[in-house]
Design brief:
- The protein is α+β, with helices and mostly antiparallel strands and 803 residues long.
- Among the domains are: 234 residues, Rossmann fold (3-Layer(aba) Sandwich); 214 residues, no CATH class.
- The chain contains 15 helices and 49 strands.
- Strands 33, 34, 38, 39, 40, 41, 42, 43, 44, 46, 47, 48 and 49 form a 13-stranded antiparallel beta sheet that branches. Strands 2-1-8-7-6-5-9-13-14-15-20 form an 11-stranded mixed beta sheet, sandwiched between helices. Strands 26-25-24-23-22-27 form a 6-stranded mixed beta sheet.
- A hairpin with a 4-residue loop joins strand 25 and strand 26.
- Helix 8 packs antiparallel against helix 11, helix 9 runs antiparallel to helix 10 and helix 10 runs antiparallel to helix 11.
- The protein is globular.
């Protein structure tokens, strides 16, 4: 049995001198009336016993030795003395309503769920409301900060204060410090309720304050403040929000909690089942955070099944006492891939594999970018370059004590990690630098974008042009050069020259020549020609240290982490793709072969600097305008020899009225492809999510999803279509002028009747256009010239030959 320790309470500068506690008899909305309020409300307050600790903060220490790669971690240690009577539970819910409440009443619905749980004097929910422009129950005031205690089917208003920004760490810190002083228990949990956006944009987006959100370091600051009033860690900290089950979040929460509950993927709108949480604790007050976590996962998954949203869902319970092994194994892995990334071919292969690995939310231009990738999938995608990839998997499997996942994510490991599939600029790198769990991983990411900035400059563009013409493959010792417009190479080991024959598409030995490969200055594949260095991450002793600097705000009694302010990443704001990458050059220009196949062959330099190859399909509107139908990976890719060819068969997905949809691939594996298509639904812009089975070709409409908003918050709702819904397909149009001028084109209105059954069939008879997209490793690309192809009345696809 734990010893119960009674605490003196500390004064919060912003707390009210006395706060009315208004009790209601039940949580059912129909029972909330004026007669339910007590005439003599109780009060809660804080007193000033105990001194505020503004110095010697107990923060995590983490460092990495650059030479050895060794990572050391020291986390805060608490006394372990009980904070409440044995078997008691308080779950604090930081309920930032936002549009989830103001548009759909989801926040109040979860409060009602808490009220519907079994009665127990040992279990209570303490809820702070805010962040929504309106609430579905009148007694929750959108212009105030309110706190409620939910216990035994009753809800009591115990605090009312001035309106506060739920995206401000002080607001969270004040709630937690007040909460643990007034409602401490043997076991305490914290739930952050709202939208989530992943490791960069964080959680709890306050719609009344420009969607300001809590970053991970702001969550860190609030928890650090509350910890000054605690002797035990939180039993769990959970995110009833999208995309927050990341290794970056787990690393921070390991300082304050025993378990983390979080989803790698977006969460459907219904979220967690608070009735089941309360029921379980009422019957099992001695349960651990791991046992409760299983109930959270299973009841959440069942709710997704009931709502028909289970395919994409994920949720995992992480044992945070084991997260250090995850961190250390990942750091060793990151050192390996950073070292390997000094070679151009290795870097491009790793990036290509990572960007094809399992990722979450959306990572496309239609819906936005979360840049969250499965941690184990990322490690395994680079397994050829690191002997530590298996150790990452083992450490993660040990740390994840329970998880659920739908059929769209059968291999989700339980933890994601940030990887910039599309970089949002210097601020994004700055934020990530403050939460990145390894300096080697930070350098692996930065090397790519620093190099991109160099090559995007006028001087750098000339450098890229030079390097692409004079390139040495360090692994084979072969030097490639261009002379008089012809491609040659010199094999140093055999002292033999070769010439590329464009007619036969073969390298042919040059038996007698006056060629002199030594006259040229080459860029070697194993050198960072951009001049990147990772020295800035280490001190004079070659040591990287986790940023553990905090300011103490005396007026509010809250800590704030001090970010590493630097202009180091300003270069990332000056990178704009050109569509004419200097890194992409051809041995065979994109053209039709004798069999009518559209194909091309890359130079060795370009192959080593190529990150991806796919194709775009366009519908011809007129002689001077086309519509983008979307991208396709129906491309035959020979990554060993640099040869690529179209395999497009003319099939496309369309509405029942025959309108081809504009399609972008969201996710794909050997079993299925998930697409997104921009549409107007009843006059509002959104995206139609579509699932295609690769086993039988069947098409299933998942629903509509709004994607990632401008503040980085992921929409939680997949909306099911219903009779009478009006769909208008949207397309990007292009004028066939020198500027390839872009516009927006609306298709014809289609009215849904019954289940929407899309067609996957040959395109209708007519002319279309096709182009390869060749992405380089530095975020630029080459869009090849459009070539026209036709579909005849028999469904045969053919390309036109220019005469």
């Amino acid at each position: 049995m734990k010893e119960l320790k009674v605490y003196g309470k500390k004064l919060l500068a912003t707390a009210l001198a006395g706060v009315m506690a208004l009790s209601l008899c039940a949580c059912d909305e129909e029972d909330w009336d004026d007669e339910g309020w007590e005439d003599e409300p109780t009060e809660t307050s804080t007193d000033d016993t105990g001194a505020v600790r503004a110095a010697n903060v107990n923060a995590m220490q983490m460092s990495v030795n650059k030479d050895t790669g060794e990572m050391s971690i020291s986390r805060p240690q608490l006394s372990g003395e009980a904070m409440g009577a044995e078997g008691t539970w308080t779950i604090f819910v930081y309920l930032c309503g936002s549009d989830l409440e103001s548009d759909g009443g989801a926040g109040f619905a979860d409060i009602e769920e808490m009220c519907s749980a079994k009665y127990s004097d040992s279990v209570k929910f303490v809820v702070q409301t805010g962040g929504a422009s309106q609430w579905s129950y009148d007694e929750i005031n959108p212009n105030m900060t309110q706190r409620f205690v939910v216990e035994n089917g009753n809800i009591t208003n115990v605090y009312e204060g001035s309106d506060a920004n739920m995206g401000d760490p002080n607001t969270l810190a004040e709630f937690l410090t007040w909460g643990v002083q007034n409602y401490a228990a043997d076991n305490m949990g914290l739930i952050l309720w709202n939208h989530g956006g992943g490791s960069i944009t964080g959680v709890c987006f306050d719609e009344k304050n420009d969607s300001d959100s809590l970053s991970l370091r702001e969550v860190d600051s609030a928890l650090l403040t509350a910890q000054q009033y605690m002797t035990e860690k939180w039993e769990f900290v959970g995110f009833d929000a999208c995309l927050m089950g990341s290794v970056e979040a787990a690393n921070i929460l390991a300082n304050y909690a025993k378990y983390m509950y979080g989803s790698e993927e977006v969460e459907p709108g219904a979220g967690w089942n608070y009735t089941e949480i309360g029921n379980f604790l009422a019957g099992n007050p001695s349960a651990s955070g791991a046992e409760l976590g299983q109930v959270v996962c299973d009841s959440f998954y069942q709710g997704c099944i009931d709502a028909g949203d289970y395919d994409c869902c994920t949720l995992a319970v992480t044992d945070l006492s084991k997260i250090d092994q995850v961190m250390q194994s990942f750091n060793s892995f990151a050192k390996d891939i950073y070292d390997a990334g000094g070679d151009a071919d290795s870097l491009s292969t790793m990036i290509r594999n990572i960007e094809s690995a399992e990722n979450f939310g959306s990572n496309n231009d239609n819906e936005g970018y979360t840049n969250m990738v499965d941690l184990v999938a990322l490690a395994e995608s680079c397994g050829s370059y690191s002997s530590n990839a298996d150790a990452v998997r083992s450490a993660v499997e040990s740390a994840i004590v329970y998880k659920i996942h739908g059929s769209d994510h059968p291999d989700a490991c339980g933890l994601s990690v940030y990887f910039p599939i599309k970089l949002g600029g210097s601020q994004e790198l700055q934020i990530f630098n403050d939460i990145c769990v390894s300096p080697f991983y930070m350098s692996f990411i930065e090397r790519r974008d620093f190099s991109a900035s160099i090559y995007y400059s006028d001087e750098g563009s000339q450098t890229a042009d030079q390097e692409s013409n004079y390139y040495q493959d360090a692994s084979s010792g072969v030097s490639y050069f261009v002379e008089d417009g012809e491609n040659y190479c010199y094999d140093q080991s055999s002292e033999t020259y070769y010439h590329y024959n464009a007619n036969t598409e073969e390298w042919e030995e040059v038996s007698d020549s006056n060629l002199d490969a030594d006259q040229y200055e080459y860029c070697s594949s194993d050198q960072t020609c951009s001049g990147y260095s990772d020295d800035s991450y280490y001190d004079d002793e070659g040591c990287w240290n986790w940023n553990c600097d905090y300011d103490y705000d005396q007026s509010s009694g809250c800590y704030r982490s001090i970010p590493n302010q630097t202009n180091q990443y300003s270069y990332a704001d000056n990178v704009e793709p050109t569509g004419e990458s200097k890194h992409i050059k051809f041995l065979r220009e994109p053209s039709l072969d004798d069999e009518g196949i559209f194909r091309f062959t890359l130079t060795k330099y370009s192959l080593d600097h190529c990150a991806d190859v796919y194709a775009m399909v366009y519908m011809v509107l007129s002689d001077d305008e086309v519509l983008l139908l979307g991208d396709t990976y129906d491309v035959e890719c020979d990554w060993k020899n640099g040869k690529f060819a179209d395999m497009f068969d003319g099939y496309w997905i369309s509405l029942p009225d025959g309108q081809n949809l504009s399609m972008t691939i969201v996710d794909k594996n050997e079993d299925f492809v998930i697409y997104t298509s921009p549409i107007l639904l009843n006059g509002e812009e959104t995206n139609l999510r579509i699932h295609q089975s690769l086993e039988d070709g069947s098409i299933t409409v998942i629903g509509t999803w709004d994607g990632i908003d401008g503040n980085g918050a992921a929409s939680r709702d997949f909306t099911k279509l219903k009779d009478g819904d009006k769909i208008v397909p949207l397309y990007t149009s292009y004028m066939l002028d020198d500027d390839f001028t872009e516009g927006l084109y609306e298709g014809e209105e289609f009215v849904v009747s019954g289940d929407l059954e899309l067609d996957y069939a040959l395109m209708y008879e007519g002319d279309f256009m096709y182009a390869f997209v060749i992405e380089d490793v530095y975020r630029d690309y080459m869009l090849t010239d459009l070539t026209v192809f036709g579909v005849d009345e028999n469904g045969d696809v053919y390309f036109y030959v220019e005469e």
